[in-house]
Specification:
With 335 residues, this protein is an alpha+beta fold. It has two domains: 13-221, Jelly Rolls (Sandwich), CATH 2.60.120.10; 227-334, Orthogonal Bundle (Arc Repressor Mutant, subunit A), CATH 1.10.10. The chain is built from eleven helices and 14 strands. Strands 1, 2, 4, 5, 7, 10, 12, 13 and 14 form a nine-stranded mixed beta sheet that branches. Helix 3 packs antiparallel against helix 4, helix 5 packs across helix 7 (260-270) and helix 8 runs parallel beside helix 11. The longest helix has 23 residues, at 162-184.
Length: 335
C-alpha cells in the first residue's frame, strides 16, 4: 500500500517551477528542459518539489506537487520523454489524452508531441528524458514498439506489469539517493556519471523486456480522443492565445459552438476544474511570473493585474493569496 512520497521533501521549493539540480556531471551535455511548463489549479501555498539529475544525454526529473497541478508542453524534436506515475494511490486525473488512467501507465512521448496532464494533490512522478540519438544507440525499445508508435504521431501509453513497475519505482528512488550522495561527495566524475546512467538504462531495459516479452500481447493503450477532450483542447487554445482577454465561458461556448454544460463537463473531466478556475489560475500564474521578474518601484501590481483583465483589485489580491499563499505585493518585493 502506498504511503507518503519517499523523496526527501524536507524543504519543498516554494512558489517556483524551476528545478533544483540535485546531481550533475559538469561535462554532461545538458538536455534543455525549459519547454516543460505547468501551473497550480487548486488553492493553497504553491508548494512543489522539482529535482533534476543531469547525466550525459539523459535528464531525470522527480516532481511532487502538494496541490492539484496541470501541465502542457511539446516534446522537442531531438528528445524522447518516458513518464511514470510513482504512487498507486494517486493516479492522474487525465494523462496524455487518457481519462482516469491506471497508476501502472508508462507514457512515451517522442519528438514534437504535445503532452498534457492534470495531476491530483500529492502527485509524485518521474520523467526520464533521453536524447533520441542515445535511445537509438542503446536500442532501448523494440523496433515493433516504434512501428506502432509511429501510427499515433509519436505518443503512446503502455500498461506495465504491476510487479515490474513496482520494482522499477523502488529502484528510481534509491538510485536518486545514491547519485545525490555521490554528487555531494564530489565523486560524480565523468566515469561515474556514465556508470550511473548505464545502470538506469539497464533497469529500463529490464522493465521493457518484462513488458514486451510477448510482443503480440503487450497492451498498447490507444488514446481515445473523445468529444469532451476536443472541447477542452479547443477552449484551452482560445484561452492560451490571449491571457489578457477577459474570457468568459459563454464567449468560449459561442466560439466553438458547444453548450455551457458540455464545456463544464469537459473541463471537469480533463482538467479536474471548471473553465473559470482554469482561466483564473492561468492568469494569476502569468501575473506571478511577471512580478517575480520585475523590479520593485518600476512596476505597479495594479497595472499588471489590469492588463490581465482583473478589475477588482481587492478580489484579485485575495485570489492571488489563496492560490500562492502570499500577496502580489509580497511576490514583487521578495524576488
Amino acid at each position: 500500500m502506498d504511503t507518503a512520497p519517499t523523496l526527501d521533501l524536507v524543504s519543498p521549493q516554494e512558489s517556483t517551477s524551476e528545478p533544483t539540480i540535485v546531481a550533475a556531471n559538469e561535462l554532461s551535455k545538458t538536455l534543455n528542459t525549459a519547454w516543460i511548463e505547468g501551473f497550480q489549479v487548486s488553492e493553497g501555498d504553491f508548494e512543489i518539489d522539482l529535482r533534476e539529475v543531469i547525466l550525459p544525454e539523459v535528464t531525470v526529473r522527480y516532481f511532487y506537487s502538494k496541490y492539484k497541478f496541470m501541465d502542457c508542453y511539446t516534446v522537442p524534436a531531438d528528445l524522447t520523454m518516458i513518464a511514470f506515475m510513482m504512487l498507486v494511490s494517486h493516479p492522474a486525473i487525465s494523462w496524455c489524452h487518457h481519462i482516469e488512467p491506471t497508476a501502472n501507465f508508462m507514457a512515451v512521448q517522442r519528438s514534437t508531441v504535445e503532452y498534457t496532464s492534470s495531476l491530483p494533490p500529492g502527485w509524485l512522478g518521474v520523467d526520464v528524458i533521453i536524447s533520441n540519438e542515445l535511445l537509438d544507440r542503446c536500442d532501448l525499445l523494440p523496433h515493433r514498439f516504434w512501428e506502432r508508435l509511429s501510427d499515433k504521431c509519436g505518443g503512446a501509453a503502455i500498461q506495465l506489469p504491476p510487479k515490474a513497475i513496482a520494482k522499477f519505482r523502488r529502484f528510481l528512488l534509491g538510485w536518486r539517493r545514491e547519485i545525490e550522495f555521490l554528487y555531494g561527495q564530489g565523486q560524480l566524475d565523468t566515469a561515474c556519471a556514465h556508470q550511473m546512467r548505464d545502470e538506469l538504462l539497464d533497469r529500463l531495459h529490464l522493465l521493457f523486456d518484462e513488458t514486451f516479452t510477448d510482443l503480440s500481447n503487450w497492451e498498447y493503450i490507444r488514446p481515445k480522443i473523445s468529444r469532451r477532450y476536443w472541447i477542452y483542447h479547443q477552449a484551452r487554445e482560445i484561452i492560451e492565445a490571449d491571457l489578457f482577454h477577459p474570457h468568459t465561458s459563454m464567449e468560449i461556448c459561442q466560439t466553438i459552438q458547444v453548450s455551457r454544460r458540455a464545456l463544464e463537463y469537459a473541463f471537469q473531466q480533463i482538467a479536474g476544474c471548471s473553465p473559470n478556475d482554469y482561466i483564473r489560475s492561468r492568469k494569476l500564474t502569468a501575473i506571478r511570473q511577471e512580478l517575480k521578474q520585475a523590479k520593485p518601484g518600476f512596476v505597479r501590481v495594479s497595472e499588471v493585474a489590469s492588463r490581465y483583465s482583473f478589475r477588482h483589485f481587492g478580489r484579485f489580491s485575495s485570489q492571488f493569496r489563496a492560490l500562492f499563499g502570499e500577496l502580489p505585493s509580497e511576490t514583487l518585493a521578495n524576488y
